[in-house]
């Protein structure tokens, strides 16, 4: 009888279910996109019920495959967009408001208030995070403060909070489990990554009742059971999408790093059992918890990466699909044109909620193709900013960067990334590292694979070696840095 692992990969723009066999090979991917809701400028919401419906639909498509019906699904692993926040009624399971997406900026005033309370240093030391609207804690407060009757119900224990993993688990188990894992908890702004507990001081500052919070467990644990058309399937893994990609890339040793090119870019470096001090403003996060042992990571975030290419397609309508950008970039001459796509503020190492996007270096002969090429290159420049900070703070000089995510299939971008960084880029055969990380964890959770066996499964598709000179790299980096500086504090705080 064939044996399978299913990964549920719930991302910012789509829900996916991915089928793996017991050798770790990807056999099938099912995907459904869902609506992006923009009530006002810089506000981003999702419908939590639509997220669940699309995720359940693609899971059922996988379960209906003939080979799955004839075999056995050993486990389900869940990975998810992380900071996005849902609050729902504990009795009815109905959300009380749309999910506030990690990109949403409406809580910037709450962040300003936390800073005025003198919590900046405390927050960085104990939660590993900077005070920014990116994270879940301020989103929880906003919902409780702005939905009629929400705070009263929360105080009575009638509401549940969860990041998307928790919301999916609740629905998969029909309300039987309200839990998360260490990696997702560490992205909320209210979890103490030293004490491994919800942080009382941050909860008090944000007026969040403890009763709404989920249980926090090892990333490879028994979380509950999904009763499916092919029988009962245990859920043995939950992990935030970027930590999942780190695991999927087999970055099990201290100093190993990866970059995921998705809607945003997310760079993580394994720092082992240590919480690394970061003067540059990198985040400390929990990579995963396994067998009672915590592994930490340094993280830097680029808020707008693949989303910038989507802007070219949907906003400006100057490309028909993302793949077209590679062809155009390869055939367009180099010009000193720089697109800074800070549509939602700047993340690491700037942490400027009030930065907005801009284009620099335009001349009369600049055409749309130059704009497309510069937008693609912005993904590499923003990643370089983060990696420079990561190397400086960790004291580790990267010898290579492991990449994954949809945009890493773009050969032009990968070569430009190698050139602007000055290090080689390794792209695996399986670029869906987020999904495979969740699958590996689920397999680990049921004893199917050891860490050594997982490491052996990683295969390299292509290596991009550095082809440009240090002089070229210095010039390009200087002009990019000048462009970024001119976007800082573009709008005034409300």
CATH architecture of the domain at 3-238: 2-Layer Sandwich
Care to count the β-strands?
23
Largest sheet data: 7 strands, mixed
| Topology-level CATH name of the domain at 3-238 | Nucleotidyltransferase, domain 5
Q: What structural class should be given to the helix and strand makeup? A: alpha+beta
- Based on CA atoms alone, the radius of gyration comes out at 22 Å
Give the overall average pLDDT.
93
Query: What strand line-up does the widest sheet have?
Result: 17-18-16-15-21-22-23
CATH superfamily of the domain at 3-238: ATPase, nucleotide binding domain
Work out the strand percent: 25-35%
Shape estimate? globular
Low-confidence stretches: none
Name the helicity range: 25-40%
Classified by CATH, the class of the domain at 3-238 is Alpha Beta
Helical stretch tally? 17
N- to C-terminal separation? 61 Å
What can you tell me about this protein's structure?
The chain is of the alpha+beta class and about 500 residues long. The protein has a domain of about 240 residues: ATPase, nucleotide binding domain (Nucleotidyltransferase, domain 5, 2-Layer Sandwich). Helices cover about 35% and strands about 25% of the residues. The protein contains 17 helices and 23 strands. It has a seven-stranded mixed β-sheet, sandwiched between helices. The chain has a six-stranded mixed β-sheet with strand order 3-2-1-5-14-13, sandwiched between helices. The chain has a two-stranded antiparallel sheet with strand order 4-7. Strand 1 and strand 2 form a beta hairpin. The protein is globular. The chain starts with a strand and ends in a 9-residue tail after the last helix. The mean pLDDT is about 95.
